[in-house]
Amino acid sequence: xxVYLIVNIGLNLQEGITGIPNFGILLAVAxxxxxxxxxxxxxxxxxLGIRTDLSPVINNVPVLSLINPILIxxxxxxxxxxxxxxxxxxxxxxxxxxxxxxxxxxxxxxxLAITLLAFGEILNxxxxxxxxxxxxxxxxxxxxxxxWAGQYRFYAGTFVLLLVAIAVFAYAGYLIKTPLGRTLRAIxxxxxxxxxxxxxxxxxxxxxxxxGSTLCGIAGSLWVMYSGSVTPTYARLDWxxxxxxxxxxxxxxxxxxxxxxxxIFVTLDKLILYYKYAFAGILPFDVIWLNYLLLGFITIxxxxxRPEGLVRTWQREPQAAQAKK
Length: 325
Known about the structure:
- By secondary structure, the protein is an all-alpha fold.
- The chain has two domains: about 1-235, no CATH class; about 235-315, no CATH class.
- About 70% of the residues lie in helices and about 0% in strands.
- It contains 15 helices and two strands.
- It has helices spanning about 1-15, 25-45, 60-75, 75-100, 110-120, 120-130, 130-135, 155-175, 180-190, 190-195, 200-225, 235-250, 255-275, 290-305, 320-325; strands at about 140, 230.
- It has a two-stranded antiparallel sheet with strand order 1-2.
- Helix 2 (about 25-45) crosses helix 11, helix 8 packs antiparallel against helix 11 and helix 9 (about 180-190) packs across helix 11 (about 200-225).
- The longest helix has 27 residues, at about 75-100.
């Protein structure tokens, strides 16, 4: 939930706040994950002063056996590396966002959406075909920056995920109230009026994509450090369409809506995943498809009966309407 919340806030900043239909957030999430996986071991070797002729990718396990004992015995060093890897993921995600937006940000919304959707699959192809990045299809493990917690590793990891998600949520709430946030919403509501007031639409769109993609890159980096490894299997369903479904469920343009939509979706998804096999033999189809069918059905209901989402976005009424009241 924490990882998806960060991704969804980044997507909501682009689509819900600025009106950029970014169907390519997979590129930023995978960028943060892949570059964290590809650079983390190399950075750890360099900063810890460990000299070895072994390849961090080909000889991944032996190399990590030199790094992890140091991180386990020195928690502060491990936390420092965690922050460094988050920075790597954020920078990589932001760079992927800029690369994808450069040729597309001047396009109309429909063409922009198609272009960003195409960009989303690029890194998966590179991750599979370019072995030095993350070892190809088998992937690589990363330095265990949470190993110092011992048997409580996953509790510590969950705490870190939630802490970063809360910080990102607070930042998004602050950003909306700033002049930048108001300008982004003005571009979303009426691009022509914003341009007539001297706002550089291309520049502000680029800023929104940069910030949103940076958040998505941080989420990808967090997931790699939590799981301990990365493989080039980031699917468009999991890292593009499901985030869109969550913000549609909660309410586009509302950070509270993003939080509500993410919580409800993840809860329903896990409940279906845990209990769907109880219906084996009862339903006239393989229960492995039950979560897709139910979530698809819920999506249809939302679009028909509550297209604005569960949490409505508050909007100021025009002065003329207020005067009539």
